[in-house]
Fold these 2 entries.
Entry 1:
Amino acid sequence: MSLPAWLHPDFRLTDDAGTATAADLTRAATRLADELPLWDRAGLAATDARAILTALLAAEARQTDLFLIRDATAGAEIGYRIEGDAVFEVAPDAPDGTGLVWLQTSGSTGRPKWVSHPPEALRGHIAAGQPHARWLLSYAAGGFAGLQVILSAAIGGHHLLVPSDHAGIGDLAALAVKHRITHLSGTPTFWRAFLMALGAETLPLATVTLGGEAADQALLDLLRAKFPQARLRHLYATTELGTVFSVADGRAGFPAAWLENDLAITEYGTLAVRRDGRLQDTGDRVARVEDRVLFRGRLDAMVNIGGVKIWPEEVETHLLHLPFLRDALVTTKPNPITGSILIAELVLADPETQALCEPLVKAHLALLPRAARPAMIRYKTALPTGQTGKKLRMP
Amino acid sequence: MIERVVAELQRILADKGETHGPITAGSLLLDGDLPIDSLDLATLVVALEEQTGREPFRAGFRMFTTVGELATLFDEAA
Amino acid sequence: MSVAVARPPSRKIDFRYLRGLSGGPVCYLEMGKPDAPPLVFLHGFGGDLLTWHYCLVGFVSRFRVIAVDLPGHGRSTLDVGAGTLAEMVAWTDATLTALGIDGAHLVGHSMGGKIAIALALAHPDRVRSLQLISPAGLGGPFDLALLTRFLDCATPETALDLASRLVGSASSALLGTLAKSLVTGKDQGPRQAAFAALLGNAATIGSSIGEHGVPWDRIACPVQVIWGAEDKILPLPEPSRLPPGARLTILPGVGHLPQIESPGRVVPLLDRFLP
């Protein structure tokens, strides 16, 4: 039994417990692989980047299916328990012993379910790049995006900084500045908060990556202004499909020319991806505007307001054009007269300017059709986010 | 409560740049003289719910046609 | 029972007015710190002070921020006189006096940029710094025919077409809302006459200040220039027409309206240039 070869010898990981080198991880993974009997499945409570990486190496060496468990209620009965105290029910159609890595979908809408990836596919979009970059992990370690960052650093031979579980956005900004981070990946919601927390501090970022939510042009412009020397890209990925594509031209959406390849727009106006010989609907609404295809939010997020079809995320994107907003969330609420109405929660860059901003926000919203204008606007100091770093849209 | 309904209605009308006559308890909210539509009415209800913390429509729609009737629904919803 | 209730404060934008040079109204928006250095924004042809409404808030903690409707535009007087540059400069100079301003940092877009340059030449003590966003008046090509279409932008279709020529490729998401604001900004009669006077007088919009381009050596204050890479109305002129040694930032994907298309990039550029 030998460990897979993708772990770069220069890789280092720093977390609360200290710094581990590639050699340390190799030793730990070898020990784990020896302890792992020839079980078909193993489960890990997926919170710790160091443990996850160790488990990925050991499980791949043993051809053991690895389940990264974030939500105990979704369930997986596992043959060998690496950490945690509970036993779970197995997903009924899980194949045996092919060394897959199983992730739970993020559950931002509805119940989480299990999705599998062959280990090579998880690493598929990762190129080695130049070593000795310094990455900060901003995502949850056990989700698809988090794994991409961890694996990127491990394969590339970089230094990965893992914040502690209770770290707030201010702590992450301080950590990034202290270690002079060169690579950072996060959701658009994370980036808006991070830019505010960073304030006037600079970072020698070589790459700025966005994923997990649609990146709007206003945010891309802010990032370009703040990090002019960085390579700026946003990834489109789903837990089911993995990374679908990466856009690096500084513009929101993707080129319409790509629709001739493995991407298509369905009759419902959603994006479909050709994978394994068939078109798979992502449920993400898109719209073709001239030479570009732009994201419009989830299809199932549509609401009917007085007979007009409205997608709250479009209103949100419109609001985010205002540079004096740090972030915005548009949700819906039932209403006895129109069926539903929109509520907007806004976070200002400078809370002291609220009285000034209110009429400007209203004037900006007046550019939208009436049904799309939120009936209520609340000013908040922060917006709730879930484990994945995405805004929480469910009430 | 009536004062609150009238004040909020005036605010909505001022935002729209609409002029209007005096608003009384008997003023019709729709199909009357007030230049408001269902979207404005929905906004009025949301604003009143937010201000009072009461939800007269939580169990379902309840009929009202005038300012006074709407105010009564809020008064009754504790 | 009729209830007398005090009118609640409107949540509309707080436009203010004062008397301008010819006696007509000057409409302006003011925010920020009254005793701080003044930062004055001048919009372009066919626009109004709301052109700047994405940008203003970012400066309120450091400056007395003022955006003005130029004659013939917005809610200011429709009287543009003969529409000459000299008249616009005199009007702006008088407006600054009426606002109690001795010297200001200026930000000018397109025609407003040209007026700002001319003001700096005529009254150097008035202008502490000059930030120019795709300014007119440098000489070089500009699309007069396109500007003329502002005079008859009556239908949503013509507005959408005009909008698509105003903005760059990165701003396609803005087309619908921009077109809407173009249509609603159109009044007949007196305003169209004012626009026609300004357009008809090429000295105000198009041609260069000074026979051989702007005499930049006569402008002592710091100058910065911002331009959209895809400006179809007023393309970036050749380098010899730009202020020598001044910082020039070209924004990819952006058309003639950088402060509307990409306030996220424009505001930091303006902010970092100011003291």
Entry 2:
Amino acid sequence: MDFNIQEHARIYITDDFWISINDTLISTWIVGGILIIFAIIARIKIRKFKAVPETRFQNIIEALVEAFENMTTGVMTKKYAYFGSWFFGLLMFLMFSNISGIFGMRPPTADFATTFPLAFTTVILMQFMGIRHNMKKGEYIKEFFRPVPIFMPLNLVSDFSKSISLSLRLFGNMVGGLIVMGLIYGLFPFFATIGIPGALSIYFDIAVGALHAYIFVLLSMYFIMSKAPASDQI
Amino acid sequence: MESFNFAVLTNDSWFLRIDPSLLGQMAIQWVNVIFLVFILSWLLYKPVRKFLNDRRERIEGELAKAAADMKEAEEQRAHYQNKLSAIAGEKEEILAAARKLAGEKEAEIIQAANGEASSIMERARLEIQREQEKAKDEMRTQIIQISALMAEQLLGEGMDEANKDKILDRAISELGDAVWKG
């Protein structure tokens, strides 16, 4: 049983640095491609949207976007609703990535190389929020030296460790689900792999996947809002 | 440097590998996701959000307009109700004035009619009085004539004209006072 990420090719930039064409990258492209096709179809259909929804597709799209917008404004207030563009795409990607395991792919989120850059983006956005909306650049940097300058490393770690905690939480859960499902499939004889693992797959691939995509996005929103001015926080 | 810018097929695998290539994979995944997020935002999220916001604004505008129209209609209704009650008041005033005027006219007409009636009565009374006087005179004359005729019969032909007149005058004066008294 192999839970590793399979590498299929390498493109060398230097002797020690290369781009790896592996399962994660291929899964990401497949998930991305499906989402882009879905978005293109939606974009074409949006032109035919009526003020009073007539098609099920319009209802689904409206419900999806509205539910997400309510979540964004609920956590980040209307003032910072523009972060919604990033989080909407992120949530869609994470959701589809996490449940891609059900189609036999290796979820892109079961790779630390995927989860860490996304979590690190949250940390970058936290700093952006602090500098852009909360206080001037100098004052913001001074905040890291409070209450006494010796706390600076701790303050830095407290901010940047969020990227580790966020990314490892998602990576761990996705890999966990992958391993559990692999073990279950390995445990049963071939004729029993139809049916029983399916129910578990619904839990580990769909429920846990959707839940962790939601948790990742929600926590990112809360982390970013923690750097917003106190008056804007809910 | 043979492998520089060179793609090779491999069959490597790993679970979590911390090495310089991880940075490259992270960068690629980051670019992939950023690109995907941009596309989803551009094609799906923003147009739908714009559509929803436009519809919300339009509905809010229509509701505000309906509320404004309703308010205006209420004001108009109140205005016309005031006008109607003013008209009702005015109607009462006009009716009261008309009644008053009619009363005055009525009294005037009655007074004029009474005046005319009394003048007619007066004229009639005077007429009657005149007729009475005339009848009295005629009666008196006839009585005298009859009396004279009777006296002539009684006294015969011997009474001359002078005596006749004397007796006639005396008889008239006596008759007049006695017979027409009352």
